[in-house]
Write a structure and sequence with these properties.
Layout: E1 2-3, E2 6-12, E3 17-23, H1 26-37, H2 50-60, H3 79-89, E4 97-98, H4 99-105, H5 112-121, E5 133-134, H6 147-166
Parallel strand pairs: 4-5
Antiparallel strand pairs: 1-2, 2-3
Length: 174
């Protein structure tokens, strides 16, 4: 599916969404997915993924959506990775956390590098927003889909958050 600045490939099992990959072209994303799930058979079913695709499109545009938390996921992981990914999902759109702060949050101070490795292993771009993790110096460090994607996603979220807070809510208008 097209998203701002590129394409996103979504994949699901019968249990839920198992992959969201970002790139410039669909062909390498599909080739990588085939290699990762071999010998499983891939079957295209855009209708089944329509809701997830809409959520991913919103997330790619920087729009926070509560629906992201209600998507069924098929996300096998170690307990450490699961804690990291859960912590990432609690970071509000438009904000970031350092790898070290995430390590402290999950009860593993000193495990900032392991948090970074968990981010790199995240198969669900945007849905598990590992782009919101930054280095202790506040700079962008690594992103499975490339630093340009990370910059774009953070900028889109920041712009959306700024618009949300700059516009008066209907209840505040007289």
């Amino acid at each position: 599916m097209p998203v701002d600045g590129g394409v996103a490939l979504l994949a699901a099992t019968e249990r839920g969404l198992c992959a969201v990959r970002l790139g410039a072209d669909m062909a390498p994303l599909l080739e990588g997915l085939r290699a990762d799930v071999a010998p499983a058979e891939l079957v295209r079913d855009d209708g089944r993924l329509a809701r997830a695709a809409a959520v991913v499109a919103d997330l790619a545009a920087g729009r926070a959506t509560l629906e992201a938390g209600s998507l069924p996921l098929d996300l096998p992981a170690s307990s450490f990775r699961r804690r990291v990914w859960d912590a990432l999902r609690r970071i509000p759109a438009g904000q970031t956390r350092t790898y070290a702060a995430l390590a402290v949050e999950i009860g593993a101070p000193g495990a900032a590098r392991a948090v970074g490795a968990a981010c790199a292993a995240n198969p669900l771009a945007l849905v598990v927003p590992c782009h919101r993790a930054v280095g202790s110096d506040g700079r962008l460090h690594g992103y499975r889909w490339g630093l340009e994607w990370k910059r774009r996603l953070l900028a889109a979220e920041a712009a959306e958050a700024a618009d949300r807070y700059a516009s008066p809510s209907p209840a505040a208008v007289w």
